[in-house]
Design goal:
The chain is an alpha/beta fold. The chain has three domains: about 5-315, polyphosphate kinase like (2-Layer Sandwich); about 325-500, 2-Layer Sandwich (Endonuclease, Chain A), CATH 3.30.870; about 505-685, Endonuclease, Chain A, CATH 3.30.870.10. Helix 1 (about 10-30) runs parallel beside helix 3 (about 75-110), helix 11 runs parallel beside helix 12 (about 380-390) and helix 15 (about 510-525) packs parallel to helix 16.
């Protein structure tokens, strides 16, 4: 077997940037509806914001530290930072060229205009004047910069205007700089009044720019330019040293808004001396400067997309049906008692999960509900069910993760409301994030006490459940119920991990279990037996598992990886990974489910879970991975879900050994396959029963894929 060196691994940061390029590719794809392209343009920028706030901020801290080391791909922090800078600058050039040359003209053709003040008609100017006086001017604060007025503390990702002005006093003329912060409390796009279907907007920043003379009377405005600062947004909390985790997180959230600057964005017309002044003031250098020829902070452009207008410029609407097993069932518990139920979101409605909790809250036979909450989105149905359950006399426990990145404030607010309602709220385990997706309902049935368990790959968030692809498993199997009970006791009490019969838990057994299954496939291949691995996840970073996959490939095991985002494994290296393929699917829905298939000598094992194959998931989070034991559900996952994703040749991109991605080449007569489109058709019963490509070869007869396997 070959040894594995740095050249066999891809930089985590550069791999993530390739993922964001695939998001951008959806904006570039003229076959997508126009407003969907605009949405992907916006998401590209939102993703980059978080990347700089967390990953680039961390790299800059490494560079400034005394520690010099190489990452798994052989790069130092400085080398990685330089590679990021080159890649990001090329990406934003492509992104904004798309905006200027394609999206803006196409929006205008469809009666959606972003207008400059100079192009407004007289009636619009009158309306804008009134809007400025009534809504904008009262909340503006002009900030001069001089020895008595230091440079202001600008909030993370806020849009600002730097103003160069000339002032004459006592016969002497002096040039000064000032800053005006564009208020976050106002919409970034101001919609102009129209009696027809036109949707005309003016940028709030441009509107403010026109009235700068009103803010600085007695001066001459020489120029103004928009700029934006991105700051380090990681939370730094030593949980072992805090008495009140809730208070510590709240304090750190306040500090996040003022963290060290890591990126400066300026509009393309900004003079070099002004950019240099801003860099110097923010303690940045030219490597941290990004010149934007287009709107800064595109996230606020979502106003163009929002609303019920222009259906012809959007994806066709899709309303997910109830999963077949629950369709027409008044009592979900009676269905789950009979057999396990698998629900494929967003193709089958997340309402089944909400109904499960609401029925548990109202059912007089239910004694207790326990649930983990990572990102609820503040949905009143989820937290409302828990509150209702308390009012109905049930024992209710919610394990709420305060450190869910960028959802901390929302989770704190809802944790407090739950506590006020009488829910017992637990904030997890010190130094670990509770990332598990599990709910336990204890019910007194006619034949005795029974535990009903919901396990998922995604969050308890009905809003994102319409956009993310995830899987839910409902079961009343006693071993699952016992494991779930022990799991919650571990989180809420003071105890050691006692093991589990069915559930695979991080940081206790998940890593070694996944390693064991990969090694088992390698041993089977060496013995000349069928060996196959299919793994679907968001990210693959863990070095040990990557090396184990390489070893399995060298032994002859066939490995297909479906990885939406980061992948540090290089497929197709001769003698190392030529039996491994990696594909990423980026489309209408965000691929979020985690599925792990192992051939296991002809007795396949399928696992679902909340954990990606990353060190943080294995060792710094509380995660749950669980087996799918019902043969029919296992077949559905293998012959329908995984098979269709492996057959996707429209939204899938294949990873090459050099770390780049490309859409698979298709022969002229090749059938176009889009897994997300086919899943929607299957869910709605619009697709004829067909045999999906089986991703594994076994001696057992092939099972025909049907729309209602449950």
């Amino acid at each position: 077997m070959k040894t594995f060196n740095a050249s066999h691994f891809i930089s985590r940061e550069l791999s993530w940037l390739e993922f964001n390029q695939r998001v951008l590719d959806e904006a570039l794809d003229a076959s997508n509806p126009l407003l969907e392209r605009v949405k992907f343009f916006i998401i590209t920028s939102s993703n980059l914001d978080e990347f700089f706030e967390v990953r680039v901020a961390g790299l800059k801290q490494q560079i400034e530290s005394d520690v010099v080391e190489r990452s798994v791909d052989g790069k130092t922090a400085s080398e990685t930072f330089r590679a990021i800078r080159r890649r990001v600058r090329a990406m934003i050039e492509q992104q904004y060229r798309c905006w200027r040359d394609e999206l803006l003209p196409a929006l205008a053709k469809n009666q959606i205009h972003l207008l400059d003040y100079e192009h407004l008609e007289a009636t619009d100017r009158t309306w804008v004047e009134q809007y400025y006086r009534a809504n904008v001017r009262p909340v503006l604060t002009p900030l001069g910069i001089d020895p008595s007025h230091p440079f202001p503390q600008l909030l993370n990702k806020s849009l600002n205007i730097v103003v160069q002005l000339e002032i004459t006093r006592d016969g002497e003329t002096d040039r000064r700089l000032a800053v005006v912060q564009v208020p976050r409390v106002l919409p970034r796009l101001v919609r102009l009044p129209r009696e027809d279907d036109r949707r005309d907007f003016i940028y709030l920043g441009h509107l403010i720019g026109h009235y700068l003379a009103d803010l600085f009377p007695g001066t001459k405005i020489l120029g103004f330019w928009h700029f934006r600062v991105t700051r380090n947004s990681e939370l730094y909390i030593d949980e072992a040293d805090v008495n009140n985790l809730l208070k510590a997180v709240e304090n750190e959230l306040h500090n996040r808004r003022k963290g060290a600057a890591v990126r400066l964005e300026v509009e393309a017309t900004c003079p070099a001396d002004i950019s240099h002044f801003l860099l110097e003031t923010l303690e940045l250098d030219g490597d941290d400067l990004y010149i934007i020829d287009g709107p800064l902070n595109p996230v606020r452009l979502m106003a163009i997309y929002e609303g019920d207008h222009s259906p012809e410029l959007r994806d066709k609407p899709f309303v997910a049906p109830i999963a077949p097993a629950f369709r027409g069932a008044g009592d979900l518990f009676s269905v789950i008692r009979q057999r396990d139920v698998l629900v494929h979101h967003p193709y089958e409605s997340f309402a089944s999960v909400v109904d499960f909790l609401e029925q548990a809250a109202a059912d007089p036979h239910v004694l207790a509900i326990k649930q983990t909450l990572y990102r609820t989105g503040g949905d009143p149905r989820i937290v409302g069910a828990l509150m209702d359950a308390v009012r109905n006399g049930k024992q209710v426990t919610a394990v709420t993760e305060l450190k869910a990145r960028f959802d901390e404030a929302n989770n704190i607010a809802w944790a407090r409301r739950l506590e006020e309602a009488g829910v017992h709220v637990v904030y997890g385990i010190v130094n670990y994030k509770v990332h598990s997706k599990i709910a336990l309902v204890v019910r007194r049935d006619d034949d005795g006490l029974r535990r009903y368990v919901h396990l998922g790959t995604g969050n308890y968030n009905p809003s994102t459940a319409r956009l993310y692809t995830d899987l839910s498993l409902f079961t009343a199997q006693s071993d699952f119920g016992e494991d779930a009970t022990n799991f919650f006791n571990l989180l809420t009490g003071i105890s050691h991990f006692q093991g589990a019969k069915k559930l695979i838990l991080a940081p206790f057994t998940a890593h070694e279990t996944m390693m064991a299954h990969v090694k088992h496939e390698a041993a089977a291949a060496r013995a000349g037996k069928p060996a196959r691995i299919i793994a679907k996840m968001n990210s693959l970073v863990d070095q040990e598992l990557i090396e184990a996959l390489y070893t399995a490939s060298q032994a002859g095991a066939k490995i297909d990886l479906i990885i939406r985002g980061i992948c540090c494994l290089r497929p197709g290296i001769p003698g190392v990974s030529e039996h491994i393929t990696v594909r990423s699917i980026v489309g209408r829905f965000l691929e979020h489910s985690r599925i792990f298939y192992f051939e296991n000598g002809g007795a396949p094992k399928v696992f679902l879970g909340s954990a990606d194959w990353m060190p943080r998931n294995f060792f710094r989070r509380i995660e749950v991975v669980f087996p799918v034991e019902d043969p029919a559900l296992r077949e559905r996952i293998v012959t329908q879900i995984l098979a269709l994703q492996l057959a996707d040749n429209t939204k899938a991109s294949l990873l090459a050994p050099d770390g780049t991605y490309a859409r698979p080449t298709r022969k002229k007569d090749t059938e176009l396959r889009g897994s997300q489109v086919e899943f929607m058709a299957l869910a709605l019963g619009e697709k004829k029963t067909r045999r999906a490509h089986r991703p594994v070869k076994r001696t057992s007869p092939k099972i025909q894929v049907v729309r209602s396997p449950q």
